[in-house]
Amino acid sequence: CCCGWEGASPPTSAVVWSYTKFKLNFTYTTYTMQKRFPSILEVYYKSNEWSGIHGIRENDQMMWLSSKN
């Protein structure tokens, strides 16, 4: 492979960087969805709540508020 760590796990820093980049991108995506397609985002939140995963809506709202400051 061209990643530089054939046969081994990726470095911890690469994993942390990838997760952080994904999380920031996902936060931006949900914020955009809230503005453009609130009904789709509502379905996302409800489906997670129905499956027993709670607090996503509140976490997103906290992230949006903290990013404004």
UniProtKB/TrEMBL annotation:
* Listed InterPro entries: CEBPZOS (IPR037764)
* Taxonomic superkingdom: Eukaryota
Quote the protein name from its UniProt record.
CEBOS protein
